[in-house]
Write a structure and sequence with these properties.
The protein is mostly beta strands. 5% of the residues lie in helices and 47% in strands. It is built from three helices and 39 strands. The strands form five sheets. It has an eight-stranded antiparallel beta barrel. Strands 2-3-4-5-6-10-11-13 form an eight-stranded antiparallel β-barrel. Strand 17 (265-271) and strand 18 form a beta hairpin. The longest helix has 19 residues, at 2-20. It is globular and about 75 Å long.
């Protein structure tokens, strides 16, 4: 079950990263609100339950959809974080009510309820996630069920047979009815008696955006455009480039993806040679939050670490609101004017993200280019998950900082000067061996140790017989392949950049196969002297 645990942990970390972006919100491992036992773990043991009927909920095509905003506490990497302004889609089909996005990290999973005569909604325990067949042999792990959960003072969980009941509110929404002193917990449990996600005190209310979503006029010509921007995260400044769309209709400009977390269009106007984009435009839901487009100036950023032992900190993003943002055309690209920033505003008024130094440029199309070097971080997590973890940030940019399409990119890992070929014999759930992993790749066998779960993938390496691990990117267009440098990090944290290597070992296919001194092939678990890639190791 190791790899499923890693997958769930990745989802929890995603939650914490988003929670950090809330303006002026403290997220802590010792919350002063909910019981301390709940703060210390996102998974606790409960009574063993027999496997129940396994039926995934599906939303019927006849259901009508409405947009709501949810607020609740949810377990995160830093304890129980309070989330509000979360986009919740509610689908109605007669007396059947379907909710999507009742969990920040699992927003795509629908939950079914039934409307009662008094207007309340009864939600019975139901399976919303089917276990993954990792080994390809029909074995499955961990069906997840949406259910009511009780938690005692020690953090132990039980799953009573009671239904979850959402009561109607005066504003047309629903509430689970809990209080800080007596919270009502709900979440996901598996068939083995563990809970994986925990939330409390759900409130759902109808959401009315400040404006209608922008729609393109009929016959509008849409062209691809690259968007380059900077943002802060944990006191560091990051640069990212994404591909989106723009449409120009006379002096009116439509932009999709101006805020990277939302795909809705915004509308601007060219006036006196400047592109002016007004605020208070609804960006829709990014699958998690309800967002509106805002603008600001005089942007400042403050990060305060309060207590490292208890995982408590305060994260501030401040700006002076503005009625619009303006771009100036510089050598064919629109550059955000100095001192201004783009703000994604959540439904509860908190900032979701602030971006600056943004530039918009029509994308010239896919042409051969040398990809930018990745950045790597090698960390020893052998005590925690039994693996070294290599994080490799792979930017969608060439060496000149111009956007290149991720679909044309691949990444390979290097170990002590040899390119790494991974096989199922190495302990990975792979359907076939792989050397170059396409951007966004995940193996069909269901393993998540080698997978692009985000722009910065984390590769789990269950081997400690190495001095340094590196990453290299290659980019192929029209049959022409160009390579980045190999960027290594050794076990002491030192970085080394090796240039001019163009996958030369692909032809000889060095790999991770191990042999004992008698020349017999052995697995990872073998102890003693082994030979791998022509080198001897004592394990």
């Amino acid at each position: 079950m190791r790899r499923f645990l890693l997958f769930v942990a990745a989802a929890v970390i995603t939650l914490s990263a988003s929670a950090q972006s809330l303006s002026g919100v403290k997220v802590g491992g010792k919350s002063k609100t909910l019981p301390e036992a709940v703060q210390q773990s996102t998974m606790k043991k409960g009574p063993r339950k027999a496997t129940e009927e396994r039926t995934i909920v599906e939303i019927p095509s006849t259901a009508t959809q409405s947009l709501y905003s949810a607020s609740y506490y949810q377990s995160s990497w830093f304890g129980m974080a309070y989330l509000s302004g979360v986009a919740t889609q509610v689908y109605t089909d007669g007396d059947d009510i379907y909710f999507k996005d009742l969990f920040h990290s699992l927003y795509y999973m629908p939950v079914k309820g039934t409307k009662q005569a008094d207007g309340s909604i009864v939600i019975k325990k139901q399976m919303i996630y089917e276990g993954i067949d990792y080994n390809g042999d029909g074995s499955e792990y961990d069906d997840l069920y949406f259910t009511l959960i009780t938690v005692d003072d020690e953090g132990n969980a039980e799953f009573p047979d009671d239904d979850i009941v959402l009561q109607p509110t005066e504003d047309g929404g629903y509430t689970i009815g809990g209080t800080i002193d007596e919270p009502v917990y709900y979440g996901l449990c598996d068939q083995y008696g563990y809970y994986w996600f925990l939330a409390a005190n759900l409130d759902i209310e109808p959401y009315t955006p400040s404006s209608e979503e922008v729609e393109l006029p009929d016959g509008a010509v849409v062209k691809e455009a690259s968007f380059k921007y900077k943002y802060y995260n944990m006191e560091d400044v990051y640069t990212a480039t994404t591909l989106s769309n723009m449409s120009v209709d006379g002096e009116t400009v439509y932009l999709e993806g101006l805020c990277p977390d939302a795909t809705a269009w915004v509308k601007g106007t060219i006036k006196d040679g400047k592109l002016c984009v007004p605020t208070n435009q609804f960006l829709g839901a990014d699958g998690t939050y309800l967002l509106e487009f805002q603008a600001g100036k005089n942007y400042t950023y403050t990060f305060e670490w309060i207590d490292e032992d208890n995982w408590e900190y305060t994260y501030y993003e401040n700006y002076d609101p503005a009625d619009e943002i303006t771009f100036t055309n510089v050598d064919g690209k629109w550059v955000l004017d100095e001192g201004q920033c783009i703000v994604e505003l959540m439904a509860d008024g908190s900032t979701f993200g602030i971006y600056f130094d943004e530039a918009i440029k029509e994308y010239a199309g896919d042409v051969p280019a040398v990809p930018a070097d990745p950045t790597v971080l090698l960390e020893d997590y052998t005590d925690l998950v039994g693996a070294w973890v290599l994080q490799a940030n792979v930017a969608a940019e060439d060496v000149n900082g111009e956007y290149i399409r991720p679909e044309n990119m691949e990444i390979a890992l290097w170990e002590d000067g040899d390119i790494m070929t991974f096989t199922a014999d190495d302990g990975y759930y792979l359907s076939e061996e792989i050397t170059w992993m396409p951007y966004g790749w995940t193996d069909d066998a269901g393993g998540y140790d080698l997978a692009f779960l985000s722009m910065t993938p984390a590769f789990y390496l269950y081997e400690d017989l190495f001095e340094k691990i590196g990453a290299q990117v290659r980019y192929t267009v029209d049959g022409v392949t160009n390579y980045s440098s190999i960027v290594y990090m050794d076990t002491e944290g030192n970085t080394e950049v090796v240039t001019g290597v163009k996958g030369i070992n692909e032809t000889t296919k060095q790999n991770n196969i191990r042999y004992n001194i008698a020349g017999q092939r052995v697995g990872n678990e073998y102890k003693g002297i082994i030979i791998r890639n022509g080198k001897k190791y004592l394990k």
